[in-house]
Amino acid sequence: MRKSALFAFAxxxxxxxxxxxxxxxxxxxxxxxxxxxxxxxxxxxQFLYIGVGIVVAVVAAFxxxxxxxxxxxxxxxxxxxxxxxxxxxxxxxxxxxxNGSFRWINLGPVNIQPSEFAKLAIVxxxxxxxxxxxxxxxxxxxxxxxPCLLIAVxxxxxxxxxxxxxxxxxxxxxxxxxxVAGVRLRHIIPAGLLGGxxxxxxxxxxxxxxxxxxxxxxxxxxxxxxxxxxxxxxNMDPAAYQAHMALVAIKNGGLWGVxxxxxxxxxxxxxxxxxxFIFAVGAEELGLLFSIxxxxxxxxxxxxxxxxxxxxxxxxxxxxxxxxxxxxxFQAVFNLGVVCxxxxxxGMALPFFSYGGTNLLSAFFAVxxxxxxxxxxxxDKKRVLARSVLMR
Length: 392
Known about the structure:
The chain has helices at 3-27, 29-36, 41-62, 67-70, 74-87, 114-133, 140-159, 164-181, 185-204, 207-221, 238-253, 278-310, 315-339, 357-391, and strands at residues 96-98, 101-107, 110-112. By secondary structure, the protein is mostly helical. It has one domain (3-391). α1 packs antiparallel against α12 (278-310) and α6 packs antiparallel against α13 (315-339). The protein is globular and about 65 Å long. The relative contact order is 0.15.
């Protein structure tokens, strides 16, 4: 493990956060004025979330990651606590609906989204279980049944909200950790297909999600609707509206952008311009160079994480890093795919950019965990080298 890799990773995260704040300062103005009579309402709250997130990341980085495994029951307690939080999003226990979904718990001035914590918890608990299982991960029960049950509990609770995007992240992250741990592909692949089929069946009975999928299929295979500078929205499918408006923003931005603060799409044409579709505003105002920079930074985030995982001191650290990095990277890729209309419309935040406290804290916790593995692996390597020198 090289110390330079840890510095590079921290710099990449800092660049993502800084770029996210710059774009949010512009993208959130219109909605801030409309909803709260304050153009900087969302930006000020985002600064607060980032401050808390940095504290979370620092604590997670300097606390030995082995704590999750070495303190008996700690990972399972975290898993159970998140499962209980997922129950509290439902109306019977005080949850509130937003856009027809029950995903948030109201805690006075703030709302938390437990499904964001579920993504972290599934990686941690699977890393602990699969590390302790050692070679027995190749067995059907130890390697497949127990991990799949752990994933299924969260997936079942989250899909009831409904939040198909989080179900996808939980299942994919869990499957990746299982693969890295050495669970046999002949076990993982059928289980993944079965889980995907189950989620697909549930989705078929959700009119809103099916409308989005059909709008996407029509746009790809049915000729769609040409994106031009002036889009007529009278006959546009509501499910495809935001994706079309996002493409208009990207097209308007061109190579150099229209200038920071000069976006037209954020003026009520793109309702979620400060959350799920913030990338489109950045592309409109800062141009193609911004888009390339964002893609490069997220690729660097994942590649450096893989390097840290490969040089981790043990299997447990490797599982944690791969799982945590995948959560952030997968959400980024999916968000960019939706904004560019390469994927069906699905509300999924762009890590470090989209406004929102829970997603930001989750991303910072993932960053802190990755750094913890890197820092402690680096220290372990130094101790081994020092010991070898003394023994000469």
